[in-house]
Write a structure and sequence with these properties.
By secondary structure, the chain is α+β, with helices and mostly antiparallel strands. The chain is built from 41 helices and 25 strands.
Length: 1343
């Protein structure tokens, strides 16, 4: 599949005229030539013209020279036949514009046949032939300047149907003027032209009085109709556009959302922040007034709630909700206590059962597969772009595999050279100098000779796998390279012909890619050896592009040359191509040169690099996990002065068990999905363990540190004490696990495979981790406590310390920092806390304000290792290319399968010739090329249907049949063949002919001598047929077809996204131009960039659902407590919003990888905030400030050491990962998640709770509703907001610790004894009292 394989056309015009000898007469009604002297030259004939008697000759005159119908002429039938053969090649380029085509033929008709030939023609040279008339060798033709200009103007804007530019650019072999056109018509091969003999055009006054120059009155302007055809269309003739603007207008850009000239979102968030700041200030003012009047605002607020509870139905309903919430919390707490006691009493059975379950799940890894296929990673099976890609591959041919080398020579100097043909000095860049071209030629030849060997021993050469557009006639590979202009031969670089060298040829071929012979320079073709052109904007890179239509691109300023080798691509087996590409990459990695610098790539290169770097980065991940394990192991235990005691108090086995449980959780998740044949991705393997470790380690710290504060007294009491602590901590673990599991499950609704897979694996892994912590880890803790109380060494249980010491009561460093320094400082004043809340709200509002400014996309180089060779290649690719990727507009119809397409009405809706509808689909696409800066369409489309019509036209002599009615190739000039169509059939094929000859057109190779319109090279795979069931070789309908063009150069993700988006719009507009057909665009990159069209909506929906799940689960598991649930949700939302601000500041783009991390940040944010909020809600302190202070002191150290410091240790290692994707999307984003989570949980959340920490104080409501009086707690905590002397009272039950006195029903506190149900006076029916006994005392706990 290529867009560059139309062969050149030779405008080989015989301008036969009689010259003036010394005795030739020049007067009206007299000739100077008549008939052939041989096959090339005309006879000198200075006599009267002769009548045409031959019917064929009369028909030719009628068709091509209608101004001479019925007149005696100075030409015979042989001359006219030769004329027809010669002009048919030019017809392929000029015929679409009737006036141009008429004028072009007319000047040749006048020179050859005019009955007044001698009045404007002179013979400059003639040769005597014995016994025969003299032979005319060269001529002079006199024409007025008006004639020359009018002839040129009628054709000046006719488009080249093959490559961008005009038809005259191809005919003149460079940008054409009227004199350039005349030189092309008159120069023979000796003068660098193509005419068989030389004709000098004298423009202006005649050199002889008897010579009268041709006048322009016989010519037609391009906007004038001819004798048989309409005027040229607007695209080929600006004057035909009338009052219309030739240029298609670019729609005005969409106005950005603004408020009072400011960014709309930023303005809204600014106003919201001002409102929040005012509310915070008002709250502080009220607190200040309350303190001045000796009233504690928190107590007043609480008492007012009690009074309000007596006032009506609303408070009564709230009381009932609180009662139900307390019942839920009680059931959950009691359930965890009972479950913990069961597991801890039977640790072996529990562990065995867990291991059996894990083994069953992990067994699924037998079916485990991992995919690195980019399409499967980034595009859903239901993706429209993926389905369209599969449709294209199935009905046509998969897009070829690309191997490419970019060559630069920065160390060499440019060279200035005088171009003789253009008579000017031209500066050639260093990459176009002889040493570079010679080195590049050697490299290209080495690549062509490269071989690979398959596993079965088969030897693969480039010829076996390369794309050969003209096979089987031409078996050369379509290597796109400027070295094709030298026929890929070193010796051609050394040609010196008439002081014209390789630079002359380079200059010429850069402007004449289709030329079969550069006869005016070194005499070799520009056309490539594979039969097609090496197009300049494909083989030159980095040159200066002209900004207007009047000047040409500065090709000689190219900073690179490109060698592109397309390989055949197959839907199933590409082993041979991949093996050859592997050898190519190995060779290029080892290539060195003192002359040139190269960057390179192959189709498999990026997948190889990503796979290699990803597996290498797994080592970095493992090191990260190892460091986190070591940190957990050393910080869980309480160290003593005695070394032996340190080994006893250590928790290495506990830490190792926790990490193993995390790995088991991930493995189980992978195993379970493997049973269902789900393919895993490297993102799952790299990210999910990080997430589960964050959740698991936090729970480990909370459990272990709670047991260290409230340790068992003896080995026998271990199961009960662990169960009691688990009953207290379990609900918090359940809260975070459920929030995360449900949030990730909702994230699985994403249509992006990477996000969906991560969400599913993460949800299952988090839930399994929670189950294993509730079973296996409890068993491990039970064993570890027994070991510790028995004085046995950690990790070496057989060794025992003879001196058994009780666990240290000293607090850890992190606990001391939080309790003695951080909490008192944070709660030192109301103003400070208000400023903290205001600052965090400001950051969140600012982050939301810049969300719409975050770039979308993923730079390919980000996925590569830091020093990957592909990094340099992609940088060169983005700066050097001057043409974008090809784009195909596919037409299909599943209903009638285009059986109506042979009808003219259907053709006119699609084609873009002059008889087609102005609003046809291809005309619309062609117009888009005029506004390429907006449409991303670089050039008009290649239209097989228009070329098919030209191919069928008997004028071109392309479609011919043998007498047995089989196709006769245009190259067969010896057999007798007849045209497929008659001229009487008209310009369009009849319906019965349309399908009959279409397969022959698609298999016919173009050739320079006879037919340039053969469709094999350009359109071989453009049409998908539905064949007859009776005769499978006979097509009866078109299932689908495509028309191709190119995108403009695309450099950034924004360019690729914009090109795809605009192509979708163009395809929709084209669909409206045709009946019963649908159009869709396809390019090789669309399947990867489709996600970015919806990623903003995907992000919003996914995060909103995740946050909604957090709220619902928090509300349910916090005892139907709306306030704490809202605060938890707000905190999680603020962390997520701040992540967007972080992405904006750090330049992190929004894509599937960052969206996965954003979804993960919701889960980790829950882990950061839920434990603080849960601790606040179960606190028995009377004021919000005291509750918030206690929650920070009790839970803050676990959050800081369990998540923050643990993750920080692991994250630092990721900074040394080899791939940029780890550095940017994992190191930076993970670091941001941990820092933002820690700041919000340890700074913002306690301060916010101290202001608006709603809580279900059930005891106060019960007293208010049933007339009880409240008994104040015994509490040493200072109620003053200054908080300087704020501290927690000792626990009278255990003689120490930081637990508050337990006497209210808000928190169920368990001790080492059994639970006994008792009667509770003055309680509502659903209220139950429990008495907890231990050996020394008992106290009541109302639940």
């Amino acid at each position: 599949m290529g867009n560059f394989y139309e062969l050149w056309v030779v405008v080989s015009i015989i301008t036969g005229v009689l010259g003036v000898g010394d005795n030739l007469v020049h007067e009206p009604g007299r000739c100077v030539t008549y008939g052939f002297s041989n096959e090339t030259f005309y006879n000198v004939y200075n006599n009267q013209p002769k009548d045409l008697l031959d019917v064929e000759a009369k028909q030719i005159i009628k068709e091509h020279c209608p101004i001479y119908i019925g007149q005696p002429l100075c030409c015979n039938t042989a001359q006219l036949r030769s004329f027809v053969d010669q002009v048919k090649m030019a017809a392929a380029f000029l015929k679409e514009c009737g006036s141009c085509w008429r004028n072009f033929r007319l000047i040749l008709c006048q020179q050859m046949c005019s009955p007044d030939q001698s009045t404007f023609m002179e013979v400059l040279e003639q040769e005597k032939v014995p016994g025969k008339p003299d032979r005319a060798l060269s001529f002079r033709a006199s024409i007025t300047k008006e004639y020359a200009v009018k002839l040129w103007q009628s054709c000046a804007n006719v488009r080249n149907p093959i490559i961008p530019g005009t038809a005259l650019d191809l005919i003149c072999e460079h940008q054409c003027t009227y004199m350039g056109l005349l030189r092309t018509l008159g120069y023979d091969k000796a003068r660098g032209g193509r005419a068989p003999y030389y004709t000098e055009y004298n423009v202006g006054n005649a050199k002889e009085n008897s010579i009268q120059p041709l006048h322009a009155d016989v010519l037609r302007h391009c906007n004038e109709p001819t004798e048989t055809e309409d005027a040229c269309v607007c695209d080929d003739c600006p004057d035909s556009c009338g009052g219309q603007n030739v240029n298609v207008t670019i729609p005005p850009p969409v106005e950005p959302f603004q408020i009072f000239g400011m960014d709309g979102i930023a303005a809204i968030m600014g106003a919201l922040y001002v409102l929040l700041a005012l509310l915070i200030g008002l709250h502080c003012l009220c607190r200040y007034i309350s303190r001045q009047t000796q009233l504690e605002s928190d107590s007043a607020s609480t008492n007012s709630n009690y009074d309000d509870a007596k006032r009506g139905l609303v408070k009564n309903l709230r009381f009932k909700m609180i009662s139900k919430g307390q019942t839920i919390e009680s059931c959950i707490a009691n359930g965890f206590y009972g479950w913990g006691k069961l597991c801890c009493s039977n640790p072996w059975k529990t562990l065995l059962g867990s291991l059996i379950g894990v083994a069953v799940c992990i067994s699924g890894l037998y079916y485990f597969t991992i995919t690195t296929d980019p399409i499967k990673l980034w595009s859903s099976k239901n993706s429209v772009a993926r389905q369209q890609k599969e449709f294209f591959d199935e009905h046509f041919t998969p897009f070829y595999r690309t191997t490419q080398i970019i060559i630069k020579a920065p160390s060499l100097e440019d060279k200035e050279y005088y171009i003789t043909s253009n008579q000017k000095n031209v500066k050639f860049s260093s990459v176009l100098t002889y040493p570079v071209l010679r080195e590049a030629m050697k490299l290209q030849n080495e690549v062509e000779n490269l071989t690979a060997t398959l596993d079965d021993g088969t030897v693969v050469t480039l010829q076996d796998v390369c794309y050969k557009p003209l096979a089987p006639d031409n078996m050369n590979c379509a290597i796109m390279s400027p070295l094709q202009w030298f026929q890929n031969k070193l010796k051609n670089l050394d040609i010196d012909r008439h002081n014209r060298v390789y630079l002359d040829h380079l200059y010429y071929c850069a402007r004449n890619n289709l030329s079969p012979s550069d006869s005016q320079n070194i005499g070799i073709p520009c056309l490539g050896v594979f039969g097609g052109p090496a197009i300049t904007n494909v083989v030159y890179g980095g040159y200066n592009v002209s900004t207007n239509e009047t000047t040409e691109d500065d090709y000689e300023s190219a900073s690179s040359i490109l060698i592109t080798i397309p390989l055949n691509n197959h839907m199933t087996n590409n082993d041979a191509a991949e093996a050859w590409e592997k050898e190519f990459l190995m060779m290029m990695k080892a290539y060195t040169s003192d002359v040139i610098e190269v960057t390179f790539s192959a189709e498999r290169a990026i997948e190889d690099e990503i796979s290699e770097s990803s597996f290498q980065d797994l080592y970095t991940v493992f090191i990260s996990y190892g460091l986190m394990f070591l940190y957990v192991s050393f910080t869980l235990g309480k160290l003593q002065i005695s070394c032996g005691s340190n080994v006893v108090q250590a928790k290495a086995m506990v830490g190792l068990s926790g990490v193993i449980i995390v790995l088991f959780s991930v493995a189980c998740s992978l195993g379970i999905f493997s049973y269902f044949k789900w393919e895993a991705t490297l993102i799952v393997i790299e990210v999910v363990p990080f997430l589960v470790l964050a959740v698991g380690v936090d729970n480990i710290y909370i459990l272990v540190q709670a047991l260290q504060k409230d340790p068992p007294k003896s080995v026998a009491s271990v199961p009960k004490q662990v169960a009691i602590v688990f009953g207290r901590i379990g609900p918090s673990m359940l809260l975070s696990a459920c929030c995360e599991t449900v949030a990730f499950s909702l994230g699985a609704m994403s249509t992006m495979p990477a996000v969906r897979n991560f969400s599913l694996y993460a949800a299952l892994a988090v839930f399994i981790n929670f189950l294993l912590q509730c079973t296996s880890f409890l068993s491990v803790i039970t064993w570890d406590l027994r070991r510790q109380l028995s004085g046995r060494y950690d990790c070496f249980c057989c060794l025992r310390n003879q001196r058994v010491e009780s666990a240290s009561t000293k607090k850890g460093i992190v606990t001391l920092i939080v309790e003695k320094y951080w909490a008192p400082a944070l709660f030192s004043s109301v103003c400070l806390r208000a400023a903290v809340v205001a600052l965090f709200f400001f950051i969140s509002c600012a982050s939301i304000g810049v969300m719409n400014k975050i770039e979308i996309g993923l730079d390919q180089t980000v996925a590569l290792p830091h020093h990957s060779y592909l990094g340099d290649y992609y940088r060169d690719l983005s700066t050097q290319l001057r043409v974008g990727p090809p784009v195909y507009f596919v037409f299909y119809n599943d209903n009638d399968r285009w059986q109506r397409f042979p009808k003219a009405a259907a053709q006119n809706e699609v084609c873009m010739g002059r008889t087609c509808n102005e609003t046809s689909a291809l005309n619309h696409l062609k117009n888009q090329a005029k506004i390429s800066s907006y449409s991303y369409i670089a050039m008009p489309p290649n239209s097989w249907i228009d070329d098919y019509f030209s191919w069928l036209d008997p004028t071109f002599d392309c479609c011919r049949l043998y007498f047995n009615n089989t196709f006769c190739p245009s190259t067969d000039r010896t057999s007798v063949c007849y045209p497929c169509m008659k001229k009487s059939d008209g310009p369009r094929p009849p319906q019965h002919i349309f399908f009959k000859h279409l397969p022959a057109f698609l298999s016919d190779n173009p050739n320079a001598d006879y037919c340039a319109k053969g469709g094999h090279a350009l359109y071989a795979s453009s049409v998908s047929f539905a064949n007859s069931k009776v005769d499978q070789s006979r097509p009866i309908a078109i299932q689908s077809t495509y028309f191709s063009t190119y995108h403009t150069p695309l450099h950034t993700s924004a360019d690729f996204i914009g090109a795809y988006k605009r192509s979708l719009e163009i395809a929709e507009e084209m669909s409206q131009s045709v009946s019963n057909m649908t159009v869709f665009p396809y390019s090789v990159f669309y399947v990867f960039y489709e996600q970015y069209l919806t990623i903003t909506d995907e992000t919003i929906v996914n995060l909103l659902f995740c946050i909604l799940a957090v709220f619902l689960m928090s509300f349910l598991l916090l005892g139907l407590n709306l306030g704490p649930a809202l605060i938890t949700t707000v905190t999680v939302a603020m962390i997520t919003a701040d992540m967007f601000g972080l992405m904006y500041v750090w330049g992190i783009t929004l894509n599937a990888v960052s969206l996965v991390n954003l979804v993960m940040s919701v889960g980790i944010s829950v882990e950061f905030s839920s434990h603080i909020v849960k601790s606040f809600t179960v606190s028995t302190r009377k004021t919000k400030t005291e509750k918030a202070y206690e929650a920070l002191v009790k839970t803050g150290p676990s959050v800081l050491s369990g998540i923050t410091l643990t993750k920080f240790v692991g994250i630092v290692v990721l900074a040394f990962a080899k791939s940029k994707i780890f550095e940017i999307f994992y190191f930076r984003m993970y670091l941001g998640i941990v820092i933002l989570g820690a700041l919000h949980s340890l700074v913002f959340l306690p301060t916010l709770l101290s202001f608006i920490g709603f809580t279900n104080n059930y005891h106060g409501y019960k007293s208010a509703m049933y007339g009880e009086s409240q008994t104040p707690e015994s509490d040493d905590m200072s109620p003053a907001d200054s908080g300087v002397n704020m501290k927690l009272s000792p626990d009278p039950v255990h003689g120490g610790g930081s637990d508050p006195i337990i006497s209210t029903p808000q928190l169920s506190r368990y001790t080492n004894g059994p639970l006994h149900k008792t009667t509770a006076p003055l309680t509502p029916p659903s209220y139950t009292a429990w008495t907890l006994h231990n050996s020394d005392q008992s106290y009541g706990v109302q639940v």
